[in-house]
Amino acid sequence: MIDDTSTYPVAKKSPRRPRKVSRQRLERWALNYLDRFFTTRANMRCVLLRRARKSCHFHGTDLTQAELWIDEVILQLTEQGYLDDRRYAQGVIRRLRRRGASQRMIHSQLREKGLETELVENLLAEHGDQVEGGLEALELRSAYALARRRKLGPFRICEVQRRERRDKDRGVFARAGFAWAVTALVLEAESLENLEAELGETPTSWD
Q1: Helix or strand or coil: residue 76?
Q2: pLDDT tens digits for 168-190?
């Protein structure tokens, strides 16, 4: 017997109707998002506003009222500690530093999340104050971490390959936002031992 069911069109599911926006529903949407992601006030506002616009367009309701509710929800969640831009930024700085991100790269990523410039710069400065040698030493640590993670410069086992890939490695550091002085200290180090001596601390103790 020939199965000819494939000749019949498959019924498509109709798209879900957006729920009508309300103050309580916006709060539920926000809490559901926070169950999955730790985020900034600015990003939370974008998330809620996107859903509110879709709902208001579908139901023909007032977006202005929804925006007022969004501001109330964000203020409430901030006062309750669910939204904390400072704590969020501190976590991102630590995570990106461990991965080898430069000061410039971290600043850019935090600003993209909607954090105010003054807050970002203050936190980056505070982070540098925690390290002997300040931001310069911290930047060198990050460059070391990038080289270690990507197996660049002195982390390349083969000296011939290291010479052949020198320009490529420099490009990686440039795109990561590192200044040439820092890049040179890492990539031009005669050996891994010399580089770690320049750092003055045991890299495994940084975390």
Answers
A1: helix
A2: 999 999 999 999 999 999 998 88
The C-alpha torsion from 131 through 132 and 133 to 137, rounded to 10°, is -50
3-state secondary structure of 98: helix
DSSP string, 74-132: HHHHHHTTS--HHHHHHHHHHHHHHHT--HHHHHHHHHHTT--HHHHHHHHHHHHHTST
pLDDT of the residue at 2? 47
Per the confidence metrics, is the pTM higher than 0.90? Answer: no
Look at the block and give the residue holding tokens 């977006």: 63
What pLDDT is stored for residue 3 in this prediction?
Answer: 47
Answer for the pair 78, 84: CB distance below 8 angstroms, yes or no: yes
Rounded Cα distance, 172 and 176, in Å: 6
Residue 20: the pLDDT is 86
Question: 89 CB contacts (<8 Å, ≥6 apart)?
Answer: 110, 115, 119, 120, 123
Q: pLDDT (tens digit, 9 = 90+) per residue, 24-50?
A: 999 999 999 999 999 999 999 999 999
| Nearest alpha carbon to residue 163 among 140, 142, 188 | 188
Q: Which residue has the tokens 């931001």?
A: 135
Task: Say how many CA atoms lie within 13 Å of 95 toward its Cβ.
Answer: 8
Residue 91, CB-side half-sphere exposure with 13 Å CA sphere: 9
Q: Using an 8 Å Cβ cutoff, are 172 and 146 in contact? A: yes
